[in-house]
Design brief:
The relative contact order is 0.21. This protein has helices at 26-41, 63-70, 88-101, 151-162, 166-182, 184-187, 208-213, 245-250, 276-288, 305-315, 328-331, 338-350; strands at residues 4-12, 15-16, 50-54, 78-82, 107-115, 123-124, 134-135, 191-192, 216-218, 225-226, 234-244, 258-267, 295-300, 358-365, 369-376. A hairpin with a 6-residue loop joins strand 9 (216-218) and strand 10 (225-226). The longest helix is centred in the middle third of the chain and has 17 residues, at 166-182. The chain has 377 residues and is α/β, with parallel strands linked by helices. The chain starts with a strand and ends with a strand. Residues 126-145 are annotated as: Disordered. The chain crosses the membrane at residues 356-375. Pfam families: Thiolase_C (PF02803), Thiolase_N (PF00108).
Length: 377
């Protein structure tokens, strides 16, 4: 079977909902990252066989198609949008790799694009005794209301069950912001300027005093979540180019290429989705016959501080190698793009590592889903 590799990886800045990217449509964000990735790899858009992108909030249509057309790709390039919520961007990359490995395509664009700001308002038609259209914030993620918790509620329950107190969560968030601020010049290498935005806009000087003044938004006073320990809703996009390793070497791109060693998407308990990445990552490690200690760098989603903390501990990762450029607590969470942003971050971090180094990225999604991928230098 053909080996797939990633030869280019770019993203936009991440900006909170209603912020600096609020006037930009999600496909425009995607198009900017597509153009940048193609330029980095010196690949003409006419050579792309397929585009696969994750999106969760656009409420239909095919924003991947809009993004490829807006980026100037030929009309013959098919585009597919997938929705597995927060996992969608990473799942899109996994699907792209599978297309290349199976020999169905040689070069595939993949990633995620999302705009909380531009997301349509959602309503469903009235039924029964209802007198008019009924608004809703999100669709159901399971057929059982009692096992379809609000994500804040699920994370707060996890904190209480694992006895991860509010102070520990806030310490984690403070460190995430500090890493992001310290890495600002390094992160600039992967960020495509869009609408004049050159850097992630949310990271700040978060400290213990500020965290102590924030009210609890979910959970009890001891283990509860605050605004500091929950990732903000955000706008962003990310793109990678997946290519066969043989073609990458022929094109002289072998130095940049990172092999997609393995990917997985796994289901778990819908009532506690934050923990599913643990099993997904363990499955990959077992398949590859490697240990968590063999991983040189990891990107773990920070939708909630408690989620990231539980996953790092459950997988057995060294916290020192996790999210070296900060995480979503300091950037924001653009749902369908978040998994792709993790992949871009991982690819960029691994560019300077020695040959043979391994990196992993993992993310959870509502409904009890977890996705992970392993890259090799």
């Amino acid at each position: 079977m053909t080996t797939a590799c990633i030869i280019a990886a770019r993203r936009s800045a991440v900006a909170p909902r209603g912020g600096a990217l609020g006037a930009v449509e999600p496909w425009e964000l995607g198009a900017a990252t597509i153009r940048a990735a193609l330029a980095d790899a010196d690949i003409d858009g006419h050579r792309i066989d397929l585009a696969v992108y994750g999106n969760a909030l656009y409420a239909g249509g095919n924003p991947a198609r809009l993004a490829t057309l807006a980026a100037g790709l030929p009309e013959r390039v098919a585009a597919l949008t997938i929705d597995s919520q927060c996992c969608a961007g990473m799942d899109a990359i996994a699907l792209a790799a599978a297309q290349v490995e199976a020999g169905h395509a040689e070069i595939v664009l993949a990633g995620g694009l999302e705009s909380y700001t531009r997301a349509p308002l959602r309503m469903r038609r009235a039924t029964g005794d209802e007198t008019g259209p009924v608004p809703f914030d999100r669709p159901p993620f399971t057929p059982w209301p009692e096992r379809d918790p609000d994500m804040l509620e699920a994370a707060a329950n996890l904190a209480a069950e694992r006895k991860i107190d509010r102070r520990a969560q806030e310490d984690y968030a403070i460190a995430s912001h500090a890493r992001t601020r310290a890495a600002r010049s390094h992160l600039a290498n992967e960020i495509v300027p869009v609408a004049g935005v050159h850097a992630d806009t949310f990271a700040r000087r978060l400290d213990r005093r500020l965290c102590g003044r924030l009210p609890v938004v979910a959970g009890d006073p001891v283990h509860g979540l605050s605004a500091a320990t929950v990732a903000v809703e955000a706008d962003a996009a990310a793109s990678v180019i997946v290519m066969s390793e043989t073609l990458a070497r022929q094109q002289g791109l072998g130095r940049r290429a990172l092999r997609v060693l393995a990917t997985t998407s796994l289901g778990g308990d819908p009532a506690q989705p934050a923990l599913v990445p643990i099993d997904a990552t363990r499955r990959l490690l077992a398949e590859l016959k490697i240990r968590a200690d063999d991983i040189a760098v990891a990107e773990v989603m920070e939708a909630f501080a408690v989620q990231a903390m539980a996953c790092i501990d459950g997988i057995g990762l060294d916290p020192a190698i996790v999210n070296p450029g900060g995480g979503a607590l300091a950037r924001g969470h653009p749902i369908g793009a978040s998994g792709a942003i993790l992949a871009v971050r991982l690819w960029q971090e691994m560019q300077t590592l020695p040959t043979g180094s391994l990196g992993i990225a993992t993310i959870a999604a509502a409904g009890g889903l977890g996705s992970a991928l392993v890259l090799k230098r």
